[in-house]
Amino acid sequence: MENDINWSSLPFGYVKTDYNVRTYYRNGKWGSLEISSSEHVDLHIAATSLHYGQESFEGLKAFMGKDGKIRLFRWEENAKRMQNSAKGILMAEVPTDLFKEAIYKVINLNKRFVPPYGSGASLYVRPLLIGSGPQVGVKPANEYLFMVFVSPVGPYFKEGFKPVNMLLTREFDRAAPLGTGKYKVGGNYAASLTSMEKAHEGGFANVLYLDSKEKKYIDECGPANFFGIKNNTYITPKSDSILPSITNMSLITLAEELGLKTERRPVAETELESFEEVGACGTAAVISPIGKIVDETGKEYFYGNQPGKISTKLYNKLLAIQTGDEADKFGWVDFVE
Ligand SMILES: *Cc1c(COP(=O)(O)O)cnc(C)c1O
User: Fold this and answer.
1) 69 tagged catalytic
2) What fold does the segment set 7-153 form as a domain?
3) Is 283 in the pocket of ligand 1 (CB under 6 A)?
4) Which residues, at least 6 apart from 66, have a Cβ–Cβ distance to it below 8 Å?
5) Are strands 261-265 and 233-237 parallel, antiparallel or unpaired?
6) pLDDT of 9
7) What is the pLDDT of residue 12?
8) How many Å lie between the centroid of ligand 1 and the Cα of residue 243?
9) pTM of the model
10) CATH architecture observed for domain 164-323
11) Which regions of the chain carry the CATH code 3.20.10.10?
């Protein structure tokens, strides 16, 4: 069955597809994968995900290559990270082979929603792990539900690869230094909504957070990692409250490949003025180049109205590997079949 989706005008949002997959962890073990065509879940009223935030998610993209093969980028890293998130908030871990079976199956079942090569669109894959068992006291659940749905998403940059502006905030924190910032859990997102809304109201794309303890160092950049480039060096913050981005990890490798030095270390706010290029990175956009960072007092760091040369090179290179236009010499790409 074909469909009449206008791929290039798709938003980065939810589109209903044919199927999703689900499985429960009960009595200490995972069950078999169920295929569902319902967009809803039947959940216990006292499920721990609803009350105490036992929830973790992942996000990755599948691309159609020129050769007609569907490619997934570093999915094993997503599996590992979800296991780490599960450990962090005491949920049952999804084994790597079950994770793989689920994402491959849901992509294969929804093949007609994989956007064609060259459209700029891709199939977004959203694995989700939640505490589904009831508790009233604050305790981890005895039952978990792992689900994966997909949604075709449009190119992140509708008007092409252009810099965005960020609000540097001292009024809000996203995560505590020894808290859950390093896990991909919904609670971090709930904690970020007010500051993000404030940024949007001010005309900014997102928020740049400082470290919650000293308010001196750059931390997370909205739902993405931050990086800066100067003196032929790619620099990204090291912090225990940052989510380890797979895109960032890959950009570090590609930067070295391009002959740059790379550093992962604390980045003081005072260093912002010395960067030649800055950006945010994550699966959704790969790289969002940052044109300007403004703090709540109006202090401004300006980088330019056009994306920097190195950011552009890194962006094109990573995207080319993901879509299969460039050879995958790092073994990052797997074919879905
Ligand atoms: C998912 C996420 C990222 C980006 O990670 P990728 O693996 O590159 O998609 C960065 N920061 C936060 C807070 C995230 O949730």
Assistant:
1) no
2) D-amino Acid Aminotransferase; Chain A, domain 1 (3.30.470)
3) yes
4) 117, 118, 323, 324, 325
5) parallel
6) 85
7) 87
8) 6
9) 0.97
10) Alpha-Beta Barrel (3.20)
11) 164-323
